[in-house]
Write a structure and sequence with these properties.
Elements lengths: L7 H13 L3 H17 L15 E3 L2 E3 L3 E3 L10 H5 L5 E7 L12 E4 L4 E4 L8 H10 L8 E6 L10 H12 L5 E5 L14 H22 L5 E5 L5 H13 L4 E4 L20 E4 L3 H15 L5 E4 L5 H9 L4 E4 L1 H6 L2 H17 L1
Parallel strand pairs: 3-4, 3-13, 4-7, 7-8, 8-9, 9-10, 10-12, 12-13
Antiparallel strand pairs: 1-2, 5-6, 6-11
Length: 356
């Protein structure tokens, strides 16, 4: 359909002004409904430019372009088709838990516009894995071969020593509907969750998940890859230990990284003292440094998805140069809008063309 003369680049800053005047979580809800409405009305071209094709093969999957939406924006898979229209090469939904949970008390989402940052302490608020699967099965994107990642976590009330049970419940349920499954052990907003990144706990969790993945592959007659999502707040020793564990258990990919507990780059700014994970531009250097070290430690044995602080095409290119095969963003999308998808796709198409 004909979308008129106003370029998408000009439209989003006007919309953003309205959204940024509202409480962040309220704005998020209205914004996602707006994306659904635009899609239903056939006006997606008003907010999104055409995206450059740049096919890549990662984890045995064929991605139309290496630009993905990170988990957290669409926790329950309510908006899959509308988001897909914005040109993403893949979409990751979740984090999902076995049972519905409210998450942490509100307010729990805070913008730091001066630094292009966001702090959240959502706490895996979601409608539960069964509801997410209803939404996935109703969506057209996966039916048409779109790549859909499903990010899984544990319920807040599940004791940490029983965490593996929650991940296995979710893996069993989502396996047949996911293009790949992400195991999230790196959110700072579920008590003790990051303890699962430590040596013995990680070894135990990965070994149980790998065994279940192979059983499910036999049961369903198809192999669904698994990725592990890690934190940026890791020292060199921890990065090496995680890389070794990923190799040992033959995981398919690693996502580097989640949000940070550090407040470097936002000290003294409004909202900077709020507890939770910091994302957006302030996490870029920290997450890219982890990605680089991880890439060296893995020595190309498994692919890395680079996420954290991508606010433009050049940021994404830096993630690829640091060793990532694919990229994802969330906070950049809030600050820049759908325009970021086409900009990153175009930049990466050029970078990858030159690398060939």
């Amino acid at each position: 359909m004909h979308c008129g003369k106003m370029p998408p680049t000009m439209l989003y800053p006007l919309i953003r002004k309205f959204f940024f005047a509202l409480d962040a979580e309220t704005a998020h809800g209205i914004g996602m409904s707006g994306i659904d409405f635009i899609n239903a009305a056939g006006f997606s071209c008003l907010v999104a430019k055409k995206v450059t094709a740049c096919p890549v093969d990662v984890m045995g999957l064929k991605f139309p372009n290496p630009v993905g939406l990170a988990a957290g924006l669409d926790k329950n898979g309510d908006h899959i088709d509308a988001l897909a229209k914005l040109g993403f090469g893949f979409i990751e939904i979740g984090t999902i838990t076995p049972h519905p949970q409210d998450g942490n008390p509100k307010p729990r989402l805070f913008r730091i516009p001066e630094a292009q940052g966001i702090i959240n302490r959502m706490g895996f608020n979601n409608a539960g894995v069964d509801k997410l699967l209803e939404n996935v099965r109703a969506a057209e994107f996966p039916k048409k071969g779109g790549i859909l990642g499903i990010n899984i976590g544990k319920n807040a009330t599940t004791p940490i020593e029983k965490a593996a049970d929650d991940y296995l419940i979710c893996l069993d349920k989502v396996y047949n509907d996911a293009s790949y499954v992400t195991v999230n052990i790196s959110s700072p907003n579920t008590k003790n969750l990051r303890e699962l990144q430590k040596d013995e706990a990680l070894d135990d969790l990965l070994s149980q998940l790998k065994a279940r993945q192979l059983q499910l592959a036999e049961q369903h007659g198809k192999y669904v890859p698994m990725a592990l999502k890690i934190a940026p707040d890791l020292d060199d020793e921890q990065i090496t230990a995680i890389a070794d564990a990923l190799r040992r258990h033959r995981f398919d990919s690693v996502i580097a990284t989640n949000t940070t507990l550090s407040r470097d780059g936002v000290e003294g700014l409004p909202n900077a003292a709020e507890t939770g994970g910091l994302s957006g531009k302030p996490v870029f250097e920290k997450s890219t440094a982890v990605l680089k070290k991880l890439s060296v430690a893995l020595a190309g044995e498994l692919p890395i998805i680079g996420v954290g602080g991508i606010m433009g095409g050049e940021d994404a290119a830096e993630k690829i140069r640091a060793g990532a095969s694919l990229v994802q963003f969330y906070s950049g999308f809030i600050y820049r809008g759908p325009d970021l998808v086409s900009e990153v796709a175009e930049t990466l198409a050029n970078v990858m063309r030159k690398a060939r």
